[in-house]
Amino acid sequence: MATQDFLVELGTEELPPKALKPLSDAFSRGITRGLEEAGIDFGKVEAFAAPRRLAVRIRGLEDAQPDKPVEKRGPAVKAAFDDSGNPTRALTGFATSLGVTPDQLDTLETDKGAWVVYRTIEKGRPTVELMPELVDQSLAALPIPKRMRWGAHRTEFVRPVHWAIMLFGSKVIETPIMGLTPGNNTRGHRFHCPKSLIVPKPGDYEVVLRQEGYVIADFAERREQIRDGVMAIARNEAGGQAVIDEDLLDEVTALNEWPVPLMGRFEERFLDVPAEALISSMKEHQKYFHVVSADGKMLPLFITVANLESKDPSQVISGNEKVIRPRLSDAAFFYDTDRKTRLEDRIEQLKPIVFQDKLGSIYDKSVRVAALAKKIADAIGSDPVLAERAAMLAKTDLVTEMVLEFTDLQGIMGQYYAANDGENEEVASALNEQYMPRFAGDDLPATLTGCAVAIADRIDSLVGLFGINQPPSGTRDPFGLRRASLGVLRIIIERELPLDLQTLCEWAEAEHSSITEPNVASTVVDYMLERFRAHYEEQGISAEVYLAVHARRPTRPLDFDRRVKAVEAFRQLPEALALAGANKRVSNILTKQGGDSIGETIDTDLLQDSAEKALAEQIRQQAEKVLPLFEKGDYATALSSLASLREPVDNFFDEVMVMADDEAVRNNRLAMLNLLRNLFLRVADISVLPTTG
Fold first, then answer.
1. Which pTM was predicted?
2. Number of domain units in the chain
3. Is residue 78 part of a domain?
4. pLDDT tens for residues 295-307?
5. Among the three residues 339, 374, 392, which one is the final residue of a domain in this structure?
6. How far, in Å, CA of 652 to CA of 146, rounded?
7. What angle do CA 166, 169, 170 make, to 5 degrees?
């Protein structure tokens, strides 16, 4: 079948920069999915995205759907003909519905009898007919929270659409999309090339835009050009290094069609302001990259990316310097003003700020968190007094001028202001560390005081919100409880803290006075343990391993983690499959014969067969060896040792009848199996593991 390249471009007013890349990805995915469903083969798919355009190019697209055999079954042969062999009404009705005569139908033989069947070939539709539909479907499915209309059009999109291209080879597909008739004309840069440009065929698209239109259409290419340019200008003009924030880089890429990096300066006096405040001001408001020296100290420089080549770049730089000066002046003013009031004197200002209607104010939360942090600090060998102090000061920077202006600086400014107030160094650090980890993979609190406050803050929110029946639901999680749960688990595991979730939640529950739901502590623990599943899946550990440990419901995260790692290591052993199967068999037998009522005491005088005597002796030896290991939490070594039971267990089931006629012998064998299973249950329920390779 013949193939051609295909191109679709949608020309718009400037698209939202943070949405540009997701929109582009979704647009190309939607078209690709439509082609796959239509059964049309194609080659490489290339997405293009710039501030005023979304485009997709598909290489080697077939010019039509493949022809498809169609088979429609009608009535049974017995019902299709009467005794004389003439067509019945059932057969003529079936034929008429298909627009054919009975003699054009075939017979299909099956194991359930013979049926009348209609067979034909459905001719595939031409690609030029299908593509407008697929493009429309993809556009309709784009993740646009709020669409807009423009002019007299009833068409809706994220921004007004002004032109469209749809090419199959050199042929224009003129079927309207987004209320416009497509052509082969695009538009160049708004200032450098404010005119229409012809795209002769799909393969010429980005070349025409670059060479004639001053537009780099490929998002990834433009992104790397900006990165290289920013790094080069910092190195060559200042001997420094530009700090590239990846999210900011994406946003700047989405703002520029023809990026030109330029370096500006600001007054050195602003370096007295915390670097984070300067960076936040430059990044959030102006989309500037900051520059640091070889030893990581911030330099009084910034790099902006202009969307044009100026004949006088110094004028562009001067304009940006004028814009940034008042921003940095504000930050300096906020910093100077905030330091005149101690954090402890701001505690009262937290009382009117509502945390949650039923759970009180931020002040009320601080009091609860302080009491909880004090207990946690004592449990992990930290200073309870420092933890309590840090927790009471933890939210006070929320009412400072700096954080009111730059909300992303909460905690960071708290640490600076606490240090300025002369607070203990660990207390000051904890004000920032309380928010760690802020996201997946983020750093954890470095101090034990920070760990205590971070855990207490999250546990208080979890217990309080579950306690008033406000748990997360579906995709709705306004208080970030899923993230809070994972944060607690990470801190406890990676900092190796000897904390029990049940105890933590009970301590937190005792501090709340508004809880109405029963068994809150246990409910929250169950919720948090469920978060372990995704945590381990990200590490490549199977759900069965998680479920095997979860079945035992260990509530100390560090202990849970050690069990999971031990079971994962055990699962790799050659004996694992057989022992998992044996445990499943043992579990089924014990459940049918009384379950918990079966003891563990083995009477050696009742052992008859050599296989059961051998298993009993091996179980005795293993129990002596592994029980001390369990007490130390060395689950990996214990399970590795228990793997040696595979052969005696296999021999036992091959040679011994568990359900012996003699009741005493039978009960003795059940007790031995119960003891065997309980050894494994000290770690996990390995019967949950797969029993086949």
1. 0.81
2. 5
3. yes
4. 999 999 999 999 9
5. 339
6. 68
7. 80
